[in-house]
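Page header: ASSEMBLY MODEL / two components / 418 residues total.
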Amino acid sequence: MFEFKIKNNNQKARSAGLGQARTGFFDTPHGIIKTPNLAIVATHGKIKLLNKTDYSRANPDLTISNTFHLFVNDKIKEIKKAGGIHKWSGFRKPIMTDSGGFQVFSLGWGKVFGIGKVARSDGISSVAGHLNLLSKNPVKISENGVIFNFSVLGGNNKEYKLTPESSIKIQQDIGADIIFAFDECTSPLHSHSYTKKSMERTHRWAIRSLKANPPAGGSKLKIQQALFGIVQGGIYEDLRKKSSKFIGSLSFDGFGIGGSFGEKQMADVLRWSLSGLPEEKPRHLLGIGKIKDIFIAVKQGIDLFDCVVPTREARHGTIYTKSGKLAIKKGIFAKDGKLIDRNCDCWVCRNGITRRELREDFSAKGGSASGGKNKKILGQRLATIHNINFFKNLFTEIREAIADNKLEKLEKEYYNYI
RNA sequence: GCGGGCGUAGCUUAGCUGGCUUAAAGCGCCACCCUGUCACGGUGGAGACCGCCGGUUCGAAUCCGGUCGCCCGCG
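Prediction written out in full:
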């Protein structure tokens, strides 16, 4: 189990200096994941708005759920009782869970400073310059773990605690095929010294996570979960390389590249982050999924991704087509009787839904207040199904292109996104 | 014909015992945004000479008269 077979590592391209792209198969208890591939985000256990039928229509290859959100929303017992997340959700393909480490950032510094996974260049210059905001951070980090308390932001006074051990325990109860070590995601706003301190703590947490979930291959435990360690180090070359070497030396089943960074640093940060990892194990780039970035990462040798982009943008009315994004809520589509994408084979397009119809399905109009809302949700559901299929096809094309050594050519076909 | 009600952004309305209104909101429209989901979303923006004419007043969307249009009763 959890064997990773690299099928095509594009030796020719590598020797020509054109990149490290590779294809492979990752064997899990719920099927083989062809790589490169993308996990569709299902934070609370299920992809937002999709019912069981929609799942079979969208048919994602794998999904990723979130330890922190399932924990805080008190779903763990329910999932465990059902016999794990596959039975609980009805999705029988590979599932991952994130450890909650990202929420240490997204609900902490990310929220306080209003920055996201990929920080924009015009943001606040540094955390050090805004120490007055320290007291507003609802996330308290210590060597032992992390305490979340949202009362500083006006929430209730309840505390939620996660440690490497408890995160792993929860992830075992959830029972996904691939789980992640507990870490702290840092941002480009953090200084070298803080990032170093945080990274070293994340390394200690990695060892603790590993101890709490011994590798499946070498253990007699019945737990059939692959554990991925996470490389941190922010935007700093020395730290990234160090983290890569350290995490890469541990007996993880695969690796995640974590952290929030600036838009222009993607390729560099990835190169440094991958420098110390063993070739024969899968590498997952956490949270990245804009098409431009996917190509950058695949060329660096990333095997797996997860990202909210396909589903969140679908809910916000952004429809992906090969010739570019369609902001389907705009007025220009009110009389557009064309198919959403005539080259698309998704369930929505196969059923002949036009742009005008999909736009109408995003409208809150149409009858009673609740009817309007349901109608709006219909559009969002259809868009979600379409976008999932779009990204699924994108990755199929990427795998084929790597095998045919035509990745550069494929990237050019997506010029609208580059 | 008589009595009553209503006419404010593209739509639905708030304001209507006059100055806090350079007229407000929701929807719609436009632009931008979304990267290990606090998000069925966020941030901006355009858009109204308050039906029309006249009067009272220092000052009227708000009061008065007339007029046009629509609605409801009674004939």
